[in-house]
Amino acid sequence: MKTQSSCRSSRAADMQGVMKIFHITAFIWYAFIMQCLYIKEGESLPPGIFEYGGPWKYLTFLNLVRTFCKTCTQEADCHVSRFSTDFLFSVFAFPMGMLVVLFFWSIFAYDRQLVYPEAMDTFFPPWMNHAMHTLVLPILLGEVLLQPHVYPKTRNGIALLGIAGMAYFTWVMWVYLNVGMWVYPLLGLFSNSGLIGFFLFTLFVSVLLFLLGKGLNLCIWGK
Predict the structure, then answer these.
(1) Concatenated DSSP letters for 176-204?
(2) Mean pLDDT by 10-residue block, N- to C-terminus, for the chain (223 residues)?
(3) What is the four-CA torsion angle of 181, 187, 188, 192, rounded to 10 degrees?
(4) Do the beta carbons of residue 117 and residue 186 sit within 8 Å?
(5) What is the DSSP string of 56-97?
(6) d(CA 183, CA 84)
(7) Residue 214 near residue 157 (C-beta atoms within 8 A)
(8) What is the reported pTM?
(9) Membrane spanning segments where (predicted)?
């Protein structure tokens, strides 16, 4: 019995060590990417990229900030920090991060000019593009596999996603009304009703990704 107990304790300690290394590595990586983006803000970039709102108008950057904040509180032991970490990951980091990867590369494959024009390559090298839009995926999946999370009730999670989505849609419209430029060129192709339809479709996909994260968490870690 003592041997079995010792083995379980050893495995638990090893898992805690792996999680700590993972979270520290993710923290350093996100801090590095955010610093690179901050430096770029002062450079002579193509018109409209950081005009009015800087990087804060891009869902990719907002997702980086959310994931960075989640990683900052990951190792704290207090219940409040544990709750905030679960909340940030389950409702925002996972569904929004997956949405960024899914939508960005789908649109990029169809016509990159609609989401990431070729002129961007001069200022943001390919490795930075992948850092913002590709490596998010393995980091999120690693988090699912290494760390259990307490998810909110489904209706509460969907309601919070709706509020966050409406807030971002309002922010995008505000930027357009002030500077006459869309955050993403794709949005300029839609009519007013088309914009609403695209927003609702995006929200629908976000809900599906929230349910996917909740299902994976339940499948791997149980209740």
Answers:
(1) HHHHS--SSGGGGGS-HHHHHHHHHHHHH
(2) 53 71 84 79 62 71 72 55 78 91 94 87 86 90 89 93 91 88 89 93 95 94 82
(3) -110
(4) no
(5) GG-HHHHHHHHHHHHHHHTT--SHHHHHHHHHIIIIIIHHHH
(6) 29
(7) yes
(8) 0.83
(9) 20-39, 87-107, 127-146, 158-177, 189-213
